[in-house]
Structure formats: C-alpha cells, structure tokens
DNA sequence: GATCCGTGGCT
DNA sequence: TAGCCAAGGAT
C-alpha cells in the first residue's frame, strides 16, 4: 500500500465541474444555493443518507418525499408508531435500516434536543450510522472536511491511482488515498461532487473518460485499465430456498397477518403467515380449513438466496381462531405495508 | 474478516 | 439470463 501520492488531481477542477453538473435531488442543497448561504436541513441529510445505503437515487426519491411529508421534523418521526414507520418503509428493503432509523430519531429527539451532533465520532455512535454515513452527514450537513468513501468513491479512486488490489482488501488503501484528495474547503459540495462523478461519468461499465474533469490525472486512463477497476472477489452463487405462504380470508373480508420477529430477515415487518423457508416445502398452516393450492409459485430474490413460495388460500368463518397471527379488517390492511415478497403473494391472489 | 440483510434496473 | 450494481451497517 502506497503512503504518498504524486500527480494528484485538482479538487477545484472537480468542484468547478460540479458547479455546472450537480444533479437535482429533493434533499440536496446545490452549489449555487450553498454559495448564497442556504444551509441543508440535517434531518433531511440524515434521512436521505440512511435511505441511500445500497439503494439507488431513483428508488429513494418517492420514499424521501413520503417520509418528509408524513413527518416534517425529527420530533414527528420520533413520535410515530413502529408499525407506521415500518409500513412506510415497506418496499425499500434492508429493513434493519428502518428499525435503526426510529431508534436514532427517538434518541436525537429525547437526548439531543432534536439536534444532530456534528463531529464524526459522535455521529458514528448513532444507530444505523457507520463510517460512510457519519462522514456524509458531517461534510454535507455541516461542511466539516470528512472524507466519504462509498462504492462510487472506491471506483473513482481505484481508477485515478490504478489500484489493482481486489476489494474488499483494498478498502484501507482506497480510503487513505481518498482522504489525501479531500480539500478543506466546500466539504459538502466536494463529497457530493465525487459521488456524482462516480455515478454519472466514472461509471462501472462504460466510463465517459473523455468528459471527465480529472481525465489528465487518471493513472488507469493512462494505462488503459479503467474498465477493469475496481477489481472485486467473485461472489458465491445464491442457493434456492422453499416455503409456503398462507393467504387467509375471513368471510367479513379480514386477512390474517403476522408481525415477523424483530430481528433478521424482514425483521419487524408486517407479513402474511408463512412456513419456515428451507431446503424443501414444509406445510405449517396458521389455521384449520379447506386449503386450496394455487398454481403459480411466487419467486423472489433476496441478498443471498432465491425463494420459491408456494401459495395456499382458504376462506374461514368469523368465529374461527388462528393458531398464530392476527386478522386485519379491510380498512386496517394495506398491502403496500408488506415487504415486496409478500406483496407479490398478495398480488398473485388478487390479480 | 465473513456473513447477513431487499429490491429494482441494466447488460 | 445470470450476474452485477446501487450514497453500507451490524454482528
């Protein structure tokens, strides 16, 4: 790992590029507004950064708007019910983020008078906030010169310095190099600029090097290796798991649901009753009845496995009590509050 | 350090 | 299509 660098690209060139090419985002204060003295809302910065973890800007936009409309301040969010927030997050994925979002909001509201800390170390202690997000909040919300290192930055830096070490082993070196480039001025603009550069110019497959503000200071451009960087270890193939989802309708239209256990996969989310998921289909109905097996099998891809869900359907009488779960009446049940895999099950019955 | 944790889009 | 990728964090 190198400990010094030469032919360092100029941060001001990137900032100049950003002044004219900054993307518009609902949570972003662009370079012109910043220059005129407008400051970002730390609540908005934090909320957007949590949502953007491993998630595309396009996916986040409607959720950010929904959250800031329902809960305009961190106090509003802190006072919300768990099931409201989990339901509003449904479909965005990585549901531990939603659980930690609420923990953090309540902590900030009660113990910090609703104010986010500014220092990296203090931010890092917040639930759901790791090194990237702590740097992002410090730099973007408060213009403190911390260095953001996300997937975009790792790609940009590995190309600028032609680093061939495989990720994740290269993380330390890439962070070190990224820090050497970070200017002491315009920290918020710079953090967003280098990520914009990665997202719109220094793209994974086909980088647009000919219009890159750092073209003349890019080692991999010179070596012709850009498209092969960063190098990564190959991921193992996903296994297939099997399970059964149970769609129970009561004659009054109520639907049997259950809240999943608070941790792990889809933890804390509203769900349709389901068997455990494993190597084979294992029947575990949540209520007695004359079950109908649906033809279509719902398929879904998770982070580390594929799921094949057999769907069973039954209609039951008013007085029947389930072995587990809770009936929700039509005005209490919103399929949009289900995680995507269970929304697919619901759609397979209703459409 | 390795594993777990969603979902949608793109090639 | 099967794999890759996206403003990562917790354990």
How helical, in percent, are the residues?
25-40%
Helical stretch tally:
14
Number of strands: 6
What's the main sheet like? Answer: 3 strands, mixed
Total count of domains: 2
Radius of gyration, rounded?
24 Å
The CATH architecture of the largest domain comes to Orthogonal Bundle
Order of helices and strands: HHHHHHHHHHHHHEEEEEEH
Q: CATH class of the largest domain, please?
A: Mainly Alpha
Provide the low-confidence segments as ranges: none
Biggest sheet strand line-up: 1-5-4
Content-based structural category = alpha+beta
β-strand amount: 5-15%
Oligomer: single chain
Q: What is the CATH third-level topology name of the largest domain?
A: Endonuclease III, domain 1
* N-end to C-end Cα span: 57 Å
- Would you tell me the overall average pLDDT? 96
Q: Per the principal axes of the C-alpha atoms, what is the gross shape?
A: globular
CATH superfamily descriptor of the largest domain? Hypothetical protein, domain 2
Q: What does this 3D model show about the protein?
A:
- By secondary structure, this protein is of the alpha+beta class.
- The chain has two domains: 11-228, Endonuclease III, domain 1; 239-350, Nucleoside Triphosphate Pyrophosphohydrolase (Alpha-Beta Complex), CATH 3.90.79.
- Helix content is 39%, strand content 13%.
- The N and C termini lie far apart (57 Å).
- The structure holds a DNA duplex (11 and 11 nucleotides).
């Amino acid at each position: 790992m190198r400990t010094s660098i030469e032919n360092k690209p100029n941060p001001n060139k990137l900032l100049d590029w950003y002044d004219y090419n900054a993307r518009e985002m609902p949570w972003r204060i662009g370079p012109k507004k910043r220059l005129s003295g407008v400051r970002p809302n730390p609540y908005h910065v934090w909320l957007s950064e949590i949502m953007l973890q491993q998630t595309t800007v396009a996916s986040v936009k409607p959720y950010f708007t929904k959250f800031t409309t329902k809960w305009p301040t961190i106090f509003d969010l802190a006072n919300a019910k768990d099931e409201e927030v989990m339901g509003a997050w449904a479909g965005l994925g990585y549901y531990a983020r939603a659980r930690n979002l609420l923990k953090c909001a309540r902590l900030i509201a009660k113990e910090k008078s609703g104010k986010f800390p500014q220092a990296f170390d203090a931010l890092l202690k917040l639930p759901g906030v790791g090194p990237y997000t702590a740097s992002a909040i410090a730099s973007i919300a408060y213009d403190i010169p911390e260095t953001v290192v996300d997937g975009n930055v790792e790609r940009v830096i590995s190309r600028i310095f032609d680093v061939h070490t495989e990720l994740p082993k290269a993380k330390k070196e890439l962070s070190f190099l990224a820090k050497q480039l970070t200017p002491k001025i315009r920290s918020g603009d710079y953090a967003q600029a280098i990520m914009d550069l990665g997202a719109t110019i220094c793209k994974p497959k086909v980088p647009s090097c000919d219009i890159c503000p750092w073209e003349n200071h890019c080692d991999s451009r010179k070596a012709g290796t850009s498209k092969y960087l960063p190098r990564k270890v190959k991921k193992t193939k996903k296994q297939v798991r099997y399970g059964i989802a149970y769609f129970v309708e009561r004659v009054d239209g109520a639907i049997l649901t259950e809240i999943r256990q608070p941790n792990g996969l889809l933890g804390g989310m509203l769900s349709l009753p389901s068997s455990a998921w494993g190597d084979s289909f294992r029947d575990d109905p949540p209520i007695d009845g004359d079950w109908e097996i649906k033809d279509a099998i719902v398929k879904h891809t998770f982070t580390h496995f594929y799921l094949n869900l057999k769907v069973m359907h039954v209609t039951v009488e008013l007085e029947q009590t389930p072995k587990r779960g809770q009936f929700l009446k039509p005005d209490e049940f919103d399929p949009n509050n289900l995680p995507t895999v269970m929304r697919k099950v619901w759609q397979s019955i209703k459409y």
